[in-house]
Amino acid sequence: MDFANGPGGEVSVFKFDDNPPAATFLSLPHYWDVVSNIPNDSFSVIITFNYNESEILDRGLQEAKLAIARYDSMWHAQDSMIDTASNTISITTSHFSLFTIGDFNVTGISTDDPNKFPKSFSLYPNYPNPFNPNTTIRYDLVKKSKVVFIIYNTLGQKVKTLINETQTAGSKSVIWDGTDNTGQSVSSGLFLYTLRVDDIQQSRKMLLIR
Fold this sequence. Notes:
This protein has two helices and 16 strands. It is mainly beta. It has two domains: 2-107, no CATH class; 114-208, Sandwich (Immunoglobulin-like). The strands form four sheets. Strands 2-3-9-5-6 form a five-stranded antiparallel β-sheet, with no helix packed on it. Strand 12 and strand 13 (158-167) form a beta hairpin. The protein is globular, with a radius of gyration of 19 Å. It starts with a strand and ends with a strand.
């Protein structure tokens, strides 16, 4: 991560190899905490992140649509400049905070514009499919709803509960890493993912190949 055209001061960057906290969009499995002794709003700095093409493919992201998001009570997509030749993406900002990289054009992000909310409830095919070890599943919520997302095997046995919470309206995504509720990797096979939103339920099939 590089800085340019910024003020003097101490800057520290902490990288976390985990999904961004409270994220409702499709992103890389990393986020960065950028902290400094420079007061917010007193500067303008360019922040550049490097990304890995294989991770982009593994997460089902579209490289040309990547953007950086900054966390401030919720995630906000930033006006980003991407260089696919060097696998870098940059923003100009006056705030140090948590940052991550995601494909918000595909999966959505929290917004105050009601025209950007989905018009109907949808559960999309997972990508990739077949998959190993991770797959991403997208879905749309038209209003704030109680969401229960469960993976079943072909015997109808519950394998893993991915989501059991109330979520706001918007386009969402969830990643299954091929493990069960105990954290153990499951064997290859056909699985059913079921999304229940209030009193509506939809299911689709996916294939895990080890």
